[in-house]
Design brief:
- By secondary structure, the chain is α+β, with helices and mostly antiparallel strands.
- The protein has one domain.
- It has three helices and four strands.
- A four-stranded antiparallel β-sheet has the order 1-2-4-3.
- A hairpin with a 2-residue loop joins strand 1 and strand 2.
- Helix 1 packs antiparallel against helix 2.
- The radius of gyration is 14 Å and the shape is globular.
- The two termini are about 15 Å apart.
């Protein structure tokens, strides 16, 4: 979920923690995330390098999650966003390094589960 447009320089040439979306694009993306989370998120787990977020496998959920992740992979290249599916859930797996991990851990904290 895109949360910030400010950059933080990363040591070792890593990508800065920044979003390349415009203010309007950022607001639209955040709104889409909020709708999907309210509709279908069931669990949010912080990992050592990011997050796992589970969603109910309802019609349209996987497709919307994949569309959101495609945008995130373009605008927030400091993290690796992936969608996995199984019989019981559609799961967002997002990982980063350095300051990106703390940024990921802040994401979706205040989100209301479905």
């Amino acid at each position: 979920m895109t949360t910030s447009q400010s950059a933080t320089d990363q040591p070792g040439g890593a990508a800065p923690v920044a979003c390349t979306l415009s203010s309007a694009g950022l607001a639209a993306q955040a709104g889409r995330w909020e709708q999907l989370i309210a509709r279908a998120m069931t669990e949010r787990t912080e990992t050592a390098d990011g997050l796992h977020v589970s969603f109910r496998p309802e019609p349209g959920v996987e497709e919307e999650l994949r569309r959101l992740v495609a945008v995130e992979n373009e605008c927030c290249s400091w993290a690796a966003w992936a969608v996995e599916t199984n019989a019981g859930a559609t799961v967002l797996d997002v990982r980063s390094t350095g300051p990106g991990i703390a940024t990921l851990h802040r994401m979706f904290r205040s989100a209301k589960r479905a």
